[in-house]
Amino acid sequence: MIKPVEQKLINSIRTLSADAIEKAKSGHPGTPLGAAPAVYTLFGRQMRHDPANPAWHNRDRFVLSAGHASMLLYSVNHLFGYGLTMEDLKQFRQWGSKTPGHPEYGHTPMVETTTGPLGQGIANAVGMAMAEKHLAAVFNRDGFPVVDHYTYCLMGDGCVMEGISAEASSLAGTLGLSKLIVFYDCNKISIEGDTDIALREDTAARYRAYGWQVLEVEDGNDVDAIDRAVEAAKADDKRPSLLLIHTKIGAFSPKEGSASSHGAPLGAEAVKALKQNLGVDPEKSFSVEQEVYDFAAACVEKGRLAHRVWDQLMEGYQEAYPELYSKYMEWFEGEAPDLSQDEDFFAFEKDDSTRNASGQCLARLAARYERLMGGSADLASSNMSYIKGRGDFSAETPEGANLHFGVREQAMAAICNGMQVHGGLHAYCATFLVFSDYLKHGIRLSALMKLPVLYVLTHDSIGVGEDGPTHQPIEQLAAVRSMPNAALFRPADSRETAAAYAAAIRRQGPSCLALSRQTLPLLPGSGKQAMKGGYVLVDSEKALPDVILLASGSEVSLCVQARELLKAKGVDARVVSMPCMELFEEQDEAYKQSVLPKAVRARLAVEAATSFGWHKYVGLDGDTICLDHFGASAPAGKLFEAFGFTAENVADKALALL
Amino acid sequence: MIKPVEQKLINSIRTLSADAIEKAKSGHPGTPLGAAPAVYTLFGRQMRHDPANPAWHNRDRFVLSAGHASMLLYSVNHLFGYGLTMEDLKQFRQWGSKTPGHPEYGHTPMVETTTGPLGQGIANAVGMAMAEKHLAAVFNRDGFPVVDHYTYCLMGDGCVMEGISAEASSLAGTLGLSKLIVFYDCNKISIEGDTDIALREDTAARYRAYGWQVLEVEDGNDVDAIDRAVEAAKADDKRPSLLLIHTKIGAFSPKEGSASSHGAPLGAEAVKALKQNLGVDPEKSFSVEQEVYDFAAACVEKGRLAHRVWDQLMEGYQEAYPELYSKYMEWFEGEAPDLSQDEDFFAFEKDDSTRNASGQCLARLAARYERLMGGSADLASSNMSYIKGRGDFSAETPEGANLHFGVREQAMAAICNGMQVHGGLHAYCATFLVFSDYLKHGIRLSALMKLPVLYVLTHDSIGVGEDGPTHQPIEQLAAVRSMPNAALFRPADSRETAAAYAAAIRRQGPSCLALSRQTLPLLPGSGKQAMKGGYVLVDSEKALPDVILLASGSEVSLCVQARELLKAKGVDARVVSMPCMELFEEQDEAYKQSVLPKAVRARLAVEAATSFGWHKYVGLDGDTICLDHFGASAPAGKLFEAFGFTAENVADKALALL
Hints:
Two copies of one chain form a homodimer. Chain A is of the alpha/beta class. Chain A has three domains: 4-303, 3-Layer(aba) Sandwich (Rossmann fold); 343-515, Thiamin diphosphate (ThDP)-binding fold, Pyr/PP domains (Rossmann fold); 531-657, Rossmann fold (3-Layer(aba) Sandwich). Helices cover 42% and strands 13% of the residues of chain A. In chain A, the strands form five sheets. In chain A, strands 10-9-11-12-14-13 form a six-stranded parallel β-sheet, with helices on both faces. A five-stranded parallel β-sheet of chain A has the order 1-2-3-7-6, with helices on both faces. Chain A has a five-stranded mixed β-sheet with strand order 16-18-17-19-20. In chain A, a hairpin with a 2-residue loop joins strand 4 (189-190) and strand 5. The radius of gyration of chain A is 27 Å and the shape is elongated. The N and C termini of chain A lie far apart (85 Å). The mean pLDDT of chain A is 97. At the A-B interface, helix 6, helix 7, helix 8, helix 14 and helix 15 of A face helix 6, helix 7, helix 8, helix 14 and helix 15 of B.
């Protein structure tokens, strides 16, 4: 039976949310009102969490996939003592506040992942549950379940409609993620009205088809029923569970059941009516009874104790398994290695495709950095992304470190984000560069959260050849380069590929590696200096060259050849390799000037992709040899020639600049 | 019972496919071998098609969602007389051929849509079936079923895993698209091996949950069973049908059942073995018995007759419903209207947000261009994309023209592509600009196919305000601008919004309209000239200005204000409004020079988005006021100020250039 104080706590979540949204004159009250009992059931009764230590490794995770309901999270944060003050709640959605419009990872305590773009959160939660399952398999020993927590998620009708949630949920079923428990806040209302206009499927049956346990709760206000359903979810050790909870959007307000309660303040009168309906003083705002705080504090005492028990468990673990303990601490707390002085990591002897070089780098990296974990969206053999000797992660073999995402690029990116924020792992994933279009919102969330997820993106140009324009990236490099916090590497050879990895794993933000299908020459002079993003690969004879040739990836060697042709004509060219514009921009002005002296205006950029973005380096007086149209289906060599990617054409265009 | 000649035809599909892939030394034989009987059943027995007139409006459509199986389509094309010659098949995947690696719309007869990126094709097919259902409701009259065809689609395990197919399929069930019949070529093999590693769901149950009829065919070689299943699919007039057909990848070759048959030629020996297994002379290549051609010709005779019957039906229709007939012909054959001289279309009186202006433009456009059809991914009231008085398209009201896509951005784009290639409609769709990330691969396919789909993308900057960085686009403008064939419009006021629409509907390629949430001033001097992409909004007093201020959208008025501040300091500035870089680039050199004279190097670009791409216009000597970082959650006005988007800052930065 629900206690009166529990009901008060639930109502406090509701009134704090409504008050903060009202004060901000902006926000989403509908879900906080409807889903407050479900979320209370988790934080108050079921979750093992320690608000004083929100970063406790073994806490249960909670993901608010319906990120617009941020006030739900902030109210819980405040009530359970995670640190948000009443003043913070009053600053909801204001400049510099701890309570932004959507939950932001790294900004507000207890926010496990940045949500808002629908469907991402549940896919993050799948990633967290995968991380938990793998780490448990790696670290747990008899009597020492050091990694042992649940991942909870709240999603709404919007998340349910997004394809990314379908991808992630199908994979979660396949992988038997039994410690993933997803609440579906089913209020049957979306912004355009009754979900009947766009969603008539039997979602429960769909999740059963994915191999999930589905538990239905008829009344979203029935805390005991929700509680029992969570128990049933926990009792299933084979399947993830979906709790389909029937709720009312904007519950207890005059806008209950109406789409108008979704994304706008209720209005002062409606907030008063809400409070009256809840039996709360309508004249008080931002008001919580002490009894509620006290009760919440008592609730979290269980979690504090669980944390203490875990600390003791870790002490015993350290004694019983000192090496494993060290490894655990390294995985969860250590930094990514500095490979810049690691000669073996950079050692390559022969011409090779950069996708092959990437495969070698991954293997070398995994040997030095065991917590690397990832896989491909069903293109491992093309992406060279499978790391031999590390097994396959599956329902039956969670200790394996190679992931099989299936043809699910979107979920792949979001799962990597989830694995990364979970802690203990460094995530990578792989597909063709052209399909980075499917990853884009996931990469963006890596960037927003500054997560160093590695995106291994092979088949980086018309070098794809016969598969044709649907498979040949043109604008994908620009799409990543233009994204804040993200870095796009397009290495010119194997050594530059190693430099890309060395830089990428230590960045704060995602790195996308654009890698060739075709063999590229190992270039004399290439190497670690590529970690500066751009550098002089072959210099001019004079201090100031007649012309600067800039390129990335497969076009760098063309420029080296063109430099010889130009030399024969008495023109002194410098070749600048630019594998990563973002890292180049981070260098100091003196270095940048030393590579690209402002006085030299004859500059030619060469890249088998859109010219968009290159004028930052070639200016109004320079030129580009790029592809501002789609590719074609033909052998790669034919395409490079037909589209002007020849040393002769580079030399001719360079001459035309003089 | 299958006739021997039918089996021969099926085997011809197989051997032609294997031979062409072998000759190309590249391609995907697995699916053509496994799915040949299913595809034969359609083209030979079930489909109403007239190869001599592949553009016949009322033909049954066939979409090869598994686009990598292109040789399946090309073989069928050749055998049924769509025009591909044996020489074309021999040129598979070669430069300039009619038979590229993946099927390309507009390039090869009978290719209904460009496929290759998995999951897109089935979503296109959903769009075609929606178009058919709507057009039937608009045009059909008792005794005159002038729009009345099926849409068939073949998808594989890859398409089944992609989230976009889930989105589209859920919507198809909701809309009761009973004339959509999808073949699921279920061979349980994907590139990384047995699909069991990533896909253990019960796909049949999942489709039943979507509200589909699911029919299972145990043996993919059993043409009669497939034929019966298609009949059962046709008999259901309430639900779309999924035919789950169990096939073997690489059937009858030595690589049958192996992932190795998916994406690489079988090898000469295996092709011989395949032919032996099929009872065909292993020494012959590209060989088809005359009997097979004759039989295929007899098959299509049915379709030719059906086409003739339809022509007669249309004659009767023209007589009985002359106005409706004219409308039909206009919708299917007419061009988009030229609005450039339509003063009413451009008439606006007051300051307004460009999203509101867009709403007015859509309504004005719909009045002038009835076949406009579209909707939003559950943001209609924010996107201003609902056109009043036109009803809602649903299972029960197919005559309605407002679509409710649900929160399914990916499928929305692909459905619009499908509606557009179907013919008879001009498609638009809407969401927030930041969620163009979810649309990106769909926009790319619009661009590849040169389809004039309109993407209405509101909330175009930090002007979003309180919803914060997850909802504030930064790099999305660059992502579209860098895409070939696509155009990005960011109008500065209501008149420029009208100009964007006027230009967009007549383009060959998609147009993305980035529209403000907030009110923008109606600018003196704005108007139709915006159709040139960039133009002088407020000129300098001298022929050559001291400084050029360039901007788009909400930042244009800042530049107009800054010009006044500069004037007070004796600096003569020109303000260039640049609503569409792509259209500006299409102008002749003289015009471009007249707007941006090369001699003027003091240039400042102002846009509340990434600076990436603007250096094409400001060069090495100019500057930008842009946002090369993510936004924040706060009221919009605060954000513009905090991030330097003030007239004062524009003036200061401009002065610094001098």
